[in-house]
Each structure stands twice: as C-alpha cells, then as structure tokens.
C-alpha cells in the first residue's frame, strides 16, 4: 500500500551528526522517535526476518535495519509484504530509533515502514566496477536525473557550484554592486565577438537574436546613473561544443564606474584569493582532478597494482599574478599595428605558419584571428598558474579604451598607445577564466572601433565573430558615460577549475547535445526489443 504523505522529523545528515558517533547502548535511545526518508539504493537480505537497506537522500546515505521482531505491524501488514516492497529505487519513509548492529555499524532500527513511491524500472548499480553501472556519457547527460541517483558523488560538484555563485554575489554586493536583469531577446545581439542564435517573434513580426553578452545593456545602465551593476545569467553563442565550450552557459559581468582595468586586476586577485579560502580554507590549494566519468584520476603503479595517488592541480591564488604583455611576448612592434593590413599580415603569416598546426590555413584568417592564434600558441601555454595576458591590439578589442585615452596616455607606448587596448584576460591552467577592460566611453572612437571590425569582415576572411555596429548603443554613449571598467567571467569554467573537472558538461546540470542521439538511443532499444521477441 502506497502512503500518500510522510512527514520527516530528521534529515539523514542530521541523524548522522547527532547519533552516529555516540554510545547507543542506553535503553533511553529506544524511546527516541526518528522519521526519515529517502531512496533505496541497496538492499541485503540476511534472513527471512531480517533485511538491511541503504537509504539515500540529498546526497547522504544511511543504513536501515528491518527486523520483524522489532517492527510494529498492524493487522493489514506483513513483514513479507514489506520486504517485497523494498526494491532498489523505491522511495520510502522510515520510523524508528538509532542503534547499532552486532558488528557495531550505526543504523536506524525501523519500527514502521511506509512505501511512498515505488520504482517501476531496474535501477543502475551504484558501483563503478559493476557491469550494470550507468557509465555511458551520452546516457548520463540525456538522463541526468538517473546520473544523479546512480553517481551520488556528482551532487557535490553542484553543491560547490552553488557555493561559488553565492560567494560571488556576496562579494560584489559587499562592494555595493546592484544586481540587475537585462533582455535575453534582442533585435541585434552585441557585447562580444560571437555568432548569435536567431529566432522570430510572431507578434512583432521581426527576427530576434538571443544575447551573446549583457554588456551593452549594462553599460546603458551606467550611462543612466547606476555606478556599479552586475548580472549573473545565461548567454547563448551559436558555436562549437568541446571540453570548455557549451552553446548555453552562465556568465557574470559587472561594470564599475570611475575605475579602469588596473583597478580590476587588483580586484580580481583579491576575489580569487578569497574564493579559494572560502572553498578550501587557503589561497594555496591542491585541487583533486576528475576524469570524464567523474572518477578521481590516479597515477603510478606498484607490482602491477594501481597506487591510489590522486592527481592534483596545485594553484597559488595569492596575488600579485604574473602578467604577459601581448606585443612583448610575440615580438610585435606596436607601431606595426598602425600600418596597412598587408604589412601587418606580412609579419604575422610566417609566425602562424611556423606553428605547424594541422588543418590550419593561415591565409584564410584575418589579422585579429592571426594574432589570436599566436597568443594561444605562445602565451596561453605558459599560463598554468593565474596569469594576466594584457594590452591586446585594438583590432581584438573593439569595445575597449585605448592606452592613449587611459591614465598614462602616451607615456608608456608613445605614439603606438592608440593601437593598444587597456585590457586583460586571466588564464589559469591554460584556460581563459576572465576577460576585462577599460570601457570605451567616447562615442566617436567607439564608432571607429565598430567600423574597423566591419572593414575586416569585408576583406574576404571568414570570421563570424566580428562585432557589428550598434547605432542604439552609440546614441546612448553620446549622452556620456563616466570612465568605467568592465569584467566578465564564465561561471562554468570557474567551477570546472575549482572542482577539478575536465569537461564543461560535467558542471552543467543539463548540457546541450544532439537530439539525434536521443532518437538513436530509442531506436537501438527498439531494435533490441524486437530481436528479443523474435528469439523467443
């Protein structure tokens, strides 16, 4: 008989914390009334009158002992019926008291049993060595609910993710930032170098694009008088899927008036140091690394047996971080950025050809893409520890302020300052985590920045990530925006780093995948069922 309702007096973690470490031999504990519940993930039948259950709830497990001599059964119940109802996957409610088995194991000794929800299918095993474990990656992501049931340790990653998001909000609000919400649907998506998804409004009878970044809207709020704003939410980019990219992902962007990118370098170092202390208690951390199946990566062997030495990533989040100047690292004279595109390409092409990357045709790339490829090969590969890549050419940063407009004007780079942006990217373990720059607040300079992107697009080099001009934003900027610094972080990548995860799909509860994979899986199952019928 399925019970329609069951009230809990204790969660599993509360029971463990309160009773698991104390002496339970006193008769007093038999009078303690505990009502708890969860999903049966394991059952062991010791005899016809004794059954042990492993109960799981909210990521925590506890053992339940069902002894027919200790249960309070009514006339309509029998221990046999209860034992038959205790199938793996069923959700049950247990009323009993804390105790220990003859072997000294902590357990809840059940007095009453309530079947709350039966499980009508065979559950995968929870042991990775078992052949019926849920291991297939596509199956795991298609049926994430089943993945979370079968692979209980996975829940901890999402608990850590929630802690990271909570910390980031608290950190910014302590600095008097205001959280805001901006549109996801736009007539023209902007604020980043990316290809948008397209849709259509039947009511408005116009094409719309899903946002690729909230940047332009947030800067309009700075123009409107909010001096510190941030948004944490979803953005959408119609691009490839790999270990660090998912078309739908979570970003955090904030904009701070009366600041420049140097201020945000200091802020970034402080934020990450405090985040590591929040999660690990120190800013010099050893993060265990997990493989694609969320198993700890181990290394070494001894006498043919695996040595349980966990692979870790050692990171020192204490600032200051190392900085790599783009032009200095690439041997690029900043003055060359002011020459013609042909002269710049003459310098860049041999260097990109020298990389020797397979299936790469440097002649098909524009100047921005060529420089980006050189940064990837020569600089990003050095960024194991937290490192800033700084002062990108303006052709890569159309929304940023030039060094000539910045705090030091032409003092550092001379006449070439106009070709370099006040920008940094933070890389850790060779992956981009944060992008930031002093925001362009001169409407005419911003128009020229957009125009330069358009010119590169007209040169015949394929690049769907060029920034399009936005007249509405240019009009807003003409009303005047205070000197402002902007900052953007991919939350999924940050969580990957702090959890030691190797693929972005593992830190997104419902990642994107081909729908054909789902239908293919159904067809395979259908074929197996048909073959089984034929054989019988």
From TrEMBL:
Its EC number is 6.1.1.6. The gene is Contig3604.g3843. It comes from Stylonychia lemnae. One of its GO terms (biological process) is lysyl-tRNA aminoacylation. Keywords: Aminoacyl-tRNA synthetase, ATP-binding, Ligase, Nucleotide-binding. This is Lysine--tRNA ligase. SUPFAM superfamilies: Class II aaRS and biotin synthetases (SSF55681), Nucleic acid-binding proteins (SSF50249). Residues 158-511 form the Aminoacyl-transfer RNA synthetases class-II family profile domain. One of its GO terms (molecular function) is tRNA binding. InterPro entries: Aa-tRNA-synt_II, aa-tRNA-synth_II, aa-tRNA-synth_II/BPL/LPL, Lys-tRNA-ligase_II, Lys-tRNA-ligase_II_N, Lys-tRNA-synth_II_C, NA-bd_OB-fold, NA-bd_OB_tRNA. It is an enzyme of class 6 (ligase). It catalyses: tRNA(Lys) + L-lysine + ATP = L-lysyl-tRNA(Lys) + AMP + diphosphate. GO terms for cellular component: cytosol. Transmembrane segments: none annotated. The keyword Nucleotide-binding applies.
